[in-house]
Every structure is written in structure tokens, then in C-alpha cells.
């Protein structure tokens, strides 16, 4: 039943993709048709500058706690330093999100969300059954390792004395 449902889901998604392609006004390839890997492999001078800026800001965020209170009086307050560090971290993430690799990562997250919706999760009874099976196997393997450990301790004890 599950494979039939998967086949129907695949056929439905293919039909929707085909219908979506027919409904577009022009047949040019869009940015969405490129894969995340192709987008991530492309780069520009803007990407390099954004990466360098993000790295510099993250390094600065690590130094805020140690050096900023000596130069700026309000930074003696813990919450001011925490808010500055959080703001610098968010700024670095925004810089990274604007790169080609950041766009590819967003595409990857969207694709992962689609795949998670397709997952067939086990029922409560199946989860309970599999959990007990794992516990029993762990107990058996643990007992076997304990027996081997005792045997090797005895065996080595014969030679060491």
C-alpha cells in the first residue's frame, strides 16, 4: 500500500511540475530550475567580499567581550555585550545568506522540508515494538561482551599470574 501511495505521490508531483511548466508565460529557464549544487559552485567578487566581511564580523564578535569594555563605557554591562554579540552574529548570517552559497543553502532547506513531508513515519505501536527490539538486542550484545571480557581477564590472568 505504501509503495502504491508513493508512486501516486510521485506521479502527482510530476504532473504538477509539468502543468506548472505549461502554465508559465515564457519557456525560459528560471533560477529555480537550477540545482543547489550549481548555484553553490558559482561565485563572484561580491561573494568573496561578503564572506570576508562575515568572517571579520564573527572574529570581532568573539573579541567584544574581552576588549570592548576597555574602550567603551556602556560595554561594561553584560547585556550590552550580549546584544552586540548577537547583533554581529545576525549581521554575519545575513551577509552569508546573500552569497550564492547562502541561496543554495536556502534551496537545500526548502527541498529538505519537501522530503520530510514525504516521509512515512512509524505509528506509535511500531515505535514501541522497535524500541523493545533495540533494548533486547543491546542487552544480548552487552551480555556477550561481558562474557568475553571475563574470559579474556581469566585467560590473561593465567599468564600474568
Automatic annotation (TrEMBL):
Component of the Sec protein translocase complex. Heterotrimer consisting of SecY, SecE and SecG subunits. The heterotrimers can form oligomers, although 1 heterotrimer is thought to be able to translocate proteins. Interacts with the ribosome. Interacts with SecDF, and other proteins may be involved. Interacts with SecA. It holds the Pfam family SecE. It is found in: Membrane. Belongs to the SecE/SEC61-gamma family. One of its GO terms (cellular component) is plasma membrane. Essential subunit of the Sec protein translocation channel SecYEG. Clamps together the 2 halves of SecY. May contact the channel plug during translocation. One of its GO terms (molecular function) is protein transmembrane transporter activity. GO terms for biological process: intracellular protein transmembrane transport; protein secretion; protein targeting; protein transport by the Sec complex. The chain crosses the membrane at residues 48-68, 80-99, 130-148. InterPro entries: SecE_bac (IPR005807), SecE_sf (IPR038379), Translocase_SecE/Sec61-g (IPR001901). The keyword Transmembrane helix applies. Keywords: Cell membrane, Membrane, Protein transport, Translocation, Transmembrane, Transmembrane helix, Transport. The keyword Membrane applies. This is Protein translocase subunit SecE. The gene is secE.
